[in-house]
Amino acid sequence: MLVEFVRDKNGHRVGVVVAVGWKIVGWSAYNTKVERMVGNKFDRKRAIDIAMGRANIGSDVRIPRHIQPIVDRMMDRSARYYWK
């Protein structure tokens, strides 16, 4: 499994993108506006679990614009890593 964390401009983790097979990619994003008001922090394990679920099952949720380039990069990376 390949894992890449998405970071904001301050270097804080705000998401994760995982690859589990040849061009099989999942992602998870942290809603910084809502979660920081409540006092929650980014949970690495939960984010990876959500991303793994989206990679294995699929999702109809639209990928956020700030994560799309990282997902594209992970697709290329997974194609090289899990080449057939």
What does this structure look like?
This protein is an alpha+beta fold and 84 residues long. It has three helices and three strands; from the N terminus they run βββααα. It has helices at 32-38, 44-57, 68-81, and strands at residues 2-7, 13-21, 24-29. Strands 1-2-3 form a three-stranded antiparallel beta sheet, sandwiched between helices. The radius of gyration is 13 Å and the shape is elongated. 21% of the residues are buried.
List keywords for this structure.
single chain, 84 residues, alpha+beta, three-stranded antiparallel beta sheet, 3 helices, elongated
Mean of residue pLDDT values: 90
> Helical residue percent?
40-55%
Query: Biggest sheet, open or closed, and with what strands and sense?
Result: 3 strands, antiparallel
Structural class: alpha+beta
Residue stretches low in confidence (pLDDT < 50, at least 5 long) are: none
Overall body shape: elongated
Question: In angstroms, what separates the terminal alpha carbons?
Answer: 16 Å
Evaluate the radius of gyration. 13 Å
Question: What is the chains' assembly state?
Answer: single chain
Total number of β-strand segments? 3
Beta-strand proportion: 25-35%
How many alpha or pi helices?
Answer: 3
